[in-house]
Amino acid sequence: MKKNTRSSKKKEEKSRVGSKKVQKKASKTQGSIKKTKKKSSAANNTKSQMSNKTSNTSIEHTKQETSVMNNNTVGSNKGKGSKKGKWAGEEAAKIWTRGLETANLTAEYEEIRKIVTPFDQSKIWQANATRNRPYPDYRCLDGNRIVVHLGKSDYINASRVTVPNFDRTALLVQMPLVDQIDCVENFWRMVFNEQCSQVHLIAQPKEIEGGGFTKLFSQEANGYFYANDFFVNTRKADKNGEEKMDTYVIELLPQGCSNSVICTVYVHAYWKAQGGPEKFYAPIKAATAMAKTDVDKSAIAIVSFRGSGRNSSLLTTAVVVSQFLKGITPNIKDIVRTIREQRPMAVDSRTQYNSIYLASCWLVKAKSSGQNEEMKNGLKKFREKFEGASQMSQITK
């Protein structure tokens, strides 16, 4: 009986050990299955994230552009008790301000006004007279005109302009004839083809025939229209009556394309033809957004009614901001000369030319933290001398 009891105990112990081994194997198997599931889940999540990143690239790109407009402008240092850090353009601004004492704006602009390119360099512009606005001096040159692909015509009154020490390509464009749907289509095709992240429209609504900008794009969020087969969808509308600069996020999609382009459209309604802006905050804000290239260096389209005056003035201001940020002392006369050689009639009045200088003074005063008495007096004297020649509704302090 004792022997049988001992043997039965041994059998029970063996069976217990065996069952424990089986349980350990089972738990290991379940653990490996869980790990495999986690890996596959992580892989799927990664794929999903990659897919989302790809599909949301253009939207995120637009958010970053809007962030630049909102956060990196002249007003970003405002606030009670806040201390200004040293501006990157501080030293260049001091040198530039000292030069204001001897600046002769009348003589400078007369020199610029004499820059005229021969009409035989604008043969394609002449051949497309029905697609241009009736201003015979506001033309594009054959050598740097924008060629529109896949439209009914390859023509638009637009020029590709490059300026030293400015990291973007600028398209200077005449406002398309909004009553001609083919012209509207070509305008948006140009923005799509050139992958423009920003479009600046400088005109007062009353200047534009038959409803103003409503024939160019919908003014309401989630509104859309078709320019022939070209889809123009307004995703977001931010209307700012105080600044007279409305902002729209617009999606562009040609027929047969699966990938759309998202751009931010800024409507500058504070600026009269052949004049200067009513106030400087809005154009400096826009110029700063153009000058900032840490987000991207994509092309920008700057559009005015005639196509060379106000848009080239805004571009010049953006170049001034960009050069200050690089520590370069800007030469406004040379910048305007460079643009005018590529786009006839650029900066088309002395009032505009004066306003570029005054906007630059406004920028220096707003951004510079190390102004000595000499610098303050230099800016003040210059503003007092030339502000009467501008069209500002509010004189700067």
UniProtKB/TrEMBL annotation:
Biased composition range(s): Basic residues: 17-27
Positions of region (Disordered)? 1-85
Leader sequence range is none
MF terms from GO for this chain are: protein tyrosine phosphatase activity
Database matches in CDD domains: PTPc (cd00047)
The record's section on SMART domains has:
PTPc (SM00194), PTPc_motif (SM00404)
**Origin superkingdom:** Eukaryota
Q: Where is the composition biased (Polar residues)?
A: 48-74
According to the entry, every stretch annotated as the Tyrosine-protein phosphatase domain falls at 116-359
Q: Entry's Pfam families?
A: Y_phosphatase
Q: What positions does the domain Tyrosine specific protein phosphatases occupy?
A: 278-354
The entry's protein name is Tyrosine-protein phosphatase domain-containing protein
| Organism whose genome encodes this protein | Caenorhabditis angaria
